[in-house]
Amino acid sequence: MSVARAGCYVDTCVLVSLFHNDSGYPAAEAWLMQVKDRDLWISHWVLLEFASATALRQRRGELDNSRIEALQEALEHFRTERLGMVEPRGDDFLLARSWVQELSKSGLRAADALHLAVAHRHELTLVSADRTLVTAAQQLQTRAELVGVG
């Protein structure tokens, strides 16, 4: 049974832009300022993907250990102050799998389909800077918002 919640499920790419200060930072920051009164949600899956993106940048030599520690602390502070947690369940994986199969030509990736399934079950608007993901969400009649389109 779905628990309807007002707010947004924030995709990993938005948090990566906010905390890694990449090219998507201005759009992500502007979006965050616009939604200051809305509830924001993530899952531990988002935290895992964020850690993976950070580790990739470390392997590339773009981040040193002190910067990684600062990023982890900043994200954890933001999470406890601003983000609620929702979690994937078995049914979400099954739904994500069916959507990947249904939209096989769309480029919808498994990890993104899982985010979408979690947002869908909780009746949250998926927020992402990934145009492919937002387009897939719209095709699946799931609320989504594209960050960074000006």
Q: If you had to describe this structure to a student in words, what would you say it looks like?
A:
This protein has about 150 residues and is of the alpha/beta class. The chain is built from 7 helices and 5 strands. It has helices spanning about 10-20, 25-35, 45-60, 65-80, 90-100, 110-120, 130-140; strands at about 10, 40, 85, 125-130, 145. It has a 5-stranded parallel beta sheet with strand order 3-2-1-4-5. Helix 7 (about 130-140) links the parallel strand 4 (about 125-130) and strand 5 (about 145). Helix 1 (about 10-20) packs across helix 2 (about 25-35) and helix 1 crosses helix 3 (about 45-60). The chain is globular, with a radius of gyration of 15 Å. The N and C termini lie far apart (about 35 Å).
What are the salient characteristics of this protein?
single chain; globular; about 150 residues; 7 helices
Mean pLDDT rating: 91
User: Structural class of the secondary structure composition?
Assistant: alpha/beta
Strand order of the largest sheet: 3-2-1-4-5
Radius of gyration: 15 Å
Largest sheet entry: 5 strands, parallel
Write the H/E string, N to C: EHHEHHEHHEHE
The proportion of strand residues reads 5-15%
User: Which of globular, elongated, flat, extended, rod-shaped describes the shape?
Assistant: globular
Catalogue the unreliable spans: none
Number of strands: 5
The N- to C-terminal Cα distance equals 37 Å
Helix content estimate: 55-70%
Q: What count of helical segments does DSSP give?
A: 7
